[in-house]
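anyone seen this seq b4? input:
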Amino acid sequence: MALHITTDQSIMASADIQNLLRFLTGPAKIPLRDALAKAKPLLADGLSSPESIAKASLDKLRKTFPDEKLAKQVLSAAKRTTNASSSPSKKKRSAADASSSNPNNPSASTTSPSKRRRPNTSAPVIDTANPQTWESGLDLPPPNRDTDLISATIITINRAPLLLAFAVVSLEYTHPWLPRSSRFSLAQGLLDATAASKAKYIGITRENDSGNDALEEGYKRIRVLGKEIPVLRRWDVELIDPETSTHADDDVGSHESAGMNPAGTASDNSASAAIAPAIASAAPATAPSGSSTSGTAATLSATATVTAASEPIYWALSPKLLAQPPVASKLNPSALPIHLPHAAHSYLTRSFPDATLPLLLGALHIVYASWADSLDPAELDRRGWGWYARVRPAVDDGPEGWGGRGAVKLKDVLGLRKAGS
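predicted toks r here
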């Protein structure tokens, strides 16, 4: 829904959206990503502040929040905020709400969405004694490489899931030894880092809102689509020697995720520096699913097998969870401060209609496979952000456009492939 406003109205709308987002992600406890999608419909209904929301009927709120429980949650938060700001006896509570209004505040942004969304009944229970359980439930549909069908397809989507798809496929070519769980974690780390940077740039968060930056200091960083992501080294799987093991599944190590220090080395005496992912749980020792030629397949296979013996694997570190460590759960039994892979997988798969995700993945694999034999991994990764920026949906500038949806022509994605491929 586009907002057509004059310059003076634009200034007012920007301020309204910023205040509204601070309320939604703070007192109303809605994750930033969801709040961005709800801000414009609320403004269109004249609900631009906690005061106006508090006076609205539940039925009116349900136009934007179809889930009645969530609508009641927002309405109650608006009434609390309004009462607190108007009552001197509740100043302390009002200050507490204001301090929690930062979208980067862990108490606001890490609220579990399970109360507002249907639970993912297919999510596995992670067993720290069996690292293979991290890979369960992370399958993606097979890429559809029908170029005629791809070229005829237009997807209406917002930018975040498109960036997530770019990152997941890119990592399959630039870091083929990584298991799917690490690729999804790193892709989510890129998504959150990009969102935080953008929020600061357009004024949704303030400079002094991001107190997590200092917590990242000292941690290793790796580049994903050219952006540096803080990481935590994994020590939960043992090295499989491809020359001596033909059944990698039988030899997966049973190390728990050990304590780690910021330098990325083990903080205990577990294993040696040669620990790396099991070949079976990494991107397969065969070529990535997007490979289109036997030459590329052989190159990627050799790279995955040889590099896996010397390259470490990582989780993407979550600065928010460094500030407020998570509690143990079935998807994170060791309570690691990381971006969980299954959350990223769920977001990607539910953001696209079933028929379109295979086509997008097919287009991306065609593009990356066309360049894989002529660019080294670092250059392939660096170009990825530019490719994404060329095809991402066009949205309004400033807060009004963030979270907006737009058209992505998959023929434009195919246009990124190497000429003559």
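The longest strand covers residues 227-233. Residues 131-414 form one domain. kinda curious what u guys think
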